[in-house]
Design a protein that fits this description.
By secondary structure, the protein is an alpha/beta fold. The protein has two domains: about 220 residues, Amidase signature (AS) enzymes, CATH 3.90.1300.10; about 150 residues, Amidase signature (AS) domain (Amidase signature (AS) enzymes, Alpha-Beta Complex), CATH 3.90.1300.10. The protein is built from 15 helices and 13 strands.
Length: about 450
């Protein structure tokens, strides 16, 4: 008898996630989307109380969409590679008829009138929306969400997933869905992807329409995805953007130039376990013929300061009035962040905005002849669930706060970025992120595919 159960990390114990390609091949072989959705719903029912990945689940709606997908696929009407694929959505994005909570009680259960544009694009492609995922409150309030609880890492129940897109990463890693949508303002997709062994994508900001998405900081926000493979990330990016990805270009390792850039995070330490895994990866690339160079950039510290200024000011600009109106609807973490954000002076914000284009121009000029920059995604392995600290050398450091050194630069410079898992035998995964020049999202996926093949 054929085994119709797809294998997911954290569930089947084989350390492998089923990809969009796996599910598509199973559909071609006769498996029904109804069966896949039932498997996902069964996992959610069995494990979500412990993992707390999902805020809301639309079981009836998902089953109805699965039946529709089954009929269309059997009639030969496949809309896209995501047709019949179960997807979870970070609760910063509008889904028609559902509340958009931003992981908070601030908005009082008000329901969205329409899907966010990128969610509508998923539906048009035939994807099945399973539900909405947990997150740090207002994408800033810390891992201990006062309304929906801490998200537990499916790879280790004593670890968290980082944030703010914590539930989206957990949902994919636990097999609640095949892929998930998140938002990334200072690394909110890449940090949880690193903790759970996933691919986390932050696009060039303009690639994916943010209409119907609650902001964190409007000039830094991007909508991206969590997937188990680079190829799946490319598919998700294409559908979320409402278009088609250009054909993938197979690259030879000898065609690729990768730059290390320690100046971007020079003030922050990295745990030896992460450094060792990175060096194994870089050594594999060198042996395959990839050229590894070092990029210097003497403005890393002021870049971080400007980016943090923008994030805080724009957060307070949007959420300050809502928090003032309903202070009892916000937890301590989000409230304290808002209070600190209000201290940013308008003139400091104006200066940070004014110098952004020049900083970007100088950094991109430094990338002449370089395909991607590669730096650590996070300073350590998945954080402790109790306090969201990670071991770096002999010290425990805040996992989330490290974003200002390791990830916020990519949002400030508007560079498309992929967090790639680096698996370690019998250990939590490490992660490295690669970033390309703005607008080169599809080239980034081509490069990532090539590097993944030689660096595995």
């Amino acid at each position: 008898m054929r085994d119709n159960t797809l294998r997911f990390a954290g569930v089947a114990g084989d350390g492998r996630l089923s990809s969009v390609a796996d599910v598509g091949a199973a559909y071609d072989a006769g498996l029904s989307p109804v069966e896949i959705v039932e498997q996902c719903l069964a996992r959610i029912a069995a494990q979500n109380d412990a993992l707390r990945a999902m805020i809301a689940v639309d079981s009836d709606g998902a089953r109805a969409e699965a039946r529709r997908a089954e009929a269309e696929l059997r009639a030969g009407r496949r809309r896209s590679a995501l047709h019949g694929i179960p997807i979870a959505i970070k609760d910063m994005l509008d889904v028609a008829g559902w509340p958009t909570t931003a992981g908070s009680s601030l908005f009082g259960g008000q329901r969205a009138r329409a899907d966010a544009v990128c969610v509508a694009n998923l539906r048009a492609a035939g994807a099945i929306i399973l539900g909405k995922t947990n997150l740090h409150e207002l994408a800033t309030g810390g891992h201990d969400n006062p309304w929906f609880g801490k998200v537990v890492n499916p790879l280790d129940s004593e670890r968290g997933t980082g944030g703010s897109s914590s539930g989206s990463a957990c949902a994919v890693a636990a097999g609640f869905c095949v892929a998930a949508v998140g938002t990334d303002t200072g690394g909110s997709n890449r940090s949880p992807a690193a903790a759970t062994g996933l691919v986390g994508f932050k696009p060039t900001q303009a690639l994916i329409d943010r209409t119907g998405v609650l902001p964190t900081a409007r000039s830094l926000d991007a909508v991206g995805a969590f997937t188990s493979t680079v190829a799946d990330g490319r598919l998700m990016a294409a559908v979320l953007s409402g278009g088609a990805a250009p054909p993938a270009i197979p690259l030879q390792a000898t065609e690729i130039v990768v730059a290390k850039c320690p100046d971007l995070y020079a003030a922050a330490a990295v745990d030896p376990a992460v450094i060792d895994r990175h060096e194994v990866w870089f050594d594999a690339l060198r042996r395959a013929g990839v050229r590894i160079v070092e990029l210097t950039f003497d403005d890393g510290a002021s870049l971080r300061d400007a980016a943090a200024t923008i994030l805080k000011f724009e957060f307070a600009e949007y959420y300050g009035r809502h928090i003032d109106a309903y202070p009892d609807r916000v937890g301590d973490g989000a409230r304290k962040f808002a209070e600190a954000a209000r201290l940013v002076a308008p003139e400091d914000y104006a200066r940070a905005i004014a110098r952004r284009d020049e900083t970007k121009r100088r950094f991109i000029a430094r990338m002449a002849g370089i395909d991607v920059v590669a730096i650590p995604t996070v300073p350590g392995l998945a954080p402790r669930l109790s306090d969201e600290l990670t071991m770096v050398g002999d010290a425990m450091v805040p996992y989330g706060a490290a974003g200002v050194y390791f990830r916020l630069w990519a949002n400030y410079l508007d560079m498309p970025t992929l967090a790639l898992p680096l698996f370690r035998e019998r250990a939590l995964p490490a992660s490295i992120q690669i970033a390309a020049r703005p607008g080169r999202d599809w080239a980034l996926f081509d490069i990532a595919a090539a590097l993944t093949n030689v660096g595995a």
